[in-house]
Every structure is written in C-alpha cells, then in structure tokens.
Design brief:
This protein is an all-alpha fold and about 130 residues long. Helix content is about 60%, strand content about 0%. The protein is globular, with a radius of gyration of 16 Å.
Length: about 130
C-alpha cells in the first residue's frame, strides 16, 4: 500500500500553489495590461497574495472563484471595499449565510446590474 507522508503532501501543496500563483499572475497581466501594478512584479505579487487571502477568508476555494474575485478587484480598484459608494461589499463578503461561490455570484450580479466599473487613482487613472 502506498503511503504519502505529511512532508510529501506539503511538497505537493506548495508546488500546486506556486503553479497557481504563476498562472494567476499571467492571467492578471494578460487581462489587465493597462494597470500600472502589472509592471511591478513585486507589487503585483504582494497585491495578489493579499487578494487571494481575502478571497479565501470569504470562502472562495477554487482557482476559478479566486481568479474571478481578483478580476473583480482589478475592475473596481483595490480600495473598493472601503468605498462609500459600494456599501454592500462588506455585507456580502461577511455574510455567514452564503458560501464563497454564492458571495462571488452576488457581487458579480450587483456589479453587472449597476454597470459598475471604477478605475480609481490607485491604478494610475482618473475616476
């Protein structure tokens, strides 16, 4: 019987995370090439690490859900959760009655229904 030790599992987990991080970085650079953060590898890596952690804390677990959340943040700007024009954001993300997939679906529906797109000064553009 094949037995995988915890150390081996950790190696697999670390390698999978590295591949996902590389894929997500390339995804963001291709989809959002006009964002100045994409030109600074260190800043982009920090931004993605923070954004992925937020997505995971909100219950988003699949790579697709996390990538969609990152795209939402890229669309609205990194300070979107604190924006007084978007008071619903923390309510949705903090809802105990929704899983991560449902939270993402609600956020996307609100953004689409209100044609929201906010490219704020933090991306180097005017509002």
């Amino acid at each position: 019987m094949l037995v995988i030790r915890n150390e081996q599992r950790e190696v697999f987990r670390t390698r999978a995370r590295e591949r996902f991080d590389a894929w997500l970085t390339e995804h963001v650079r291709q989809r959002w090439p006009d964002r100045p953060i994409c030109a600074d590898a260190g800043a982009l890596a920090r931004f993605l690490a923070e954004t992925v952690a937020l997505a995971q804390r909100a219950g988003m677990v699949s790579g697709t859900q996390i990538a969609d959340y990152v795209d939402l943040v890229m669309l609205l700007g990194p300070g979107w959760r604190a924006d007084p024009r978007l008071p619903w954001a923390d309510d949705v993300l903090g809802s105990d009655g929704l899983d991560g997939r449902a939270k993402l679906r609600v956020l996307m529906q609100i953004v689409r229904a209100n044609a929201l797109e906010r490219v704020g000064p933090e991306w180097g553009h005017r509002v």
